[in-house]
Design brief:
about 100 residues; 4 helices
Length: about 100
């Protein structure tokens, strides 16, 4: 896997922008951010997404629905509940899912 593609979903634009910056600070990691949950399903279907990163401000029902949606796809999409903790925690969460990416 040369590039790791993230879809970051949340309601706080400042946090989304920060997460995008943190993610893209890692070589080969790319991030798309969305604050409108309704467009996320089509985005995941139409684009290469390796990780859906759930940030703050989302309703529990959407979080549950998007997890089930990702599980039922014919492609591997991992979901991370991420509500802060800095770049070290985020890297640890990613490396737990993709241990072969660890430096």
């Amino acid at each position: 896997m040369n590039t790791l593609n993230f879809l970051v979903i949340g309601k706080n634009q400042e946090i989304l922008d920060t997460l995008k910056r943190i993610i893209e600070n890692n070589e080969g990691w790319k991030a798309e951010i969305k604050s409108d949950e309704t467009v996320c399903y089509d985005y995941i279907k139409e684009n290469q997404v390796d990780i859906v990163l759930l940030s703050s401000g989302l309703y529990e029902e959407f979080e549950n629905d998007i997890k089930v949606f990702c599980e039922n796809l014919n492609k591997e999409v991992k979901v991370i509940d991420h509500y802060g903790g800095g770049s070290g925690l985020l890297k640890n969460e990613v490396y737990t899912l993709f241990p072969n990416l660890q430096p």
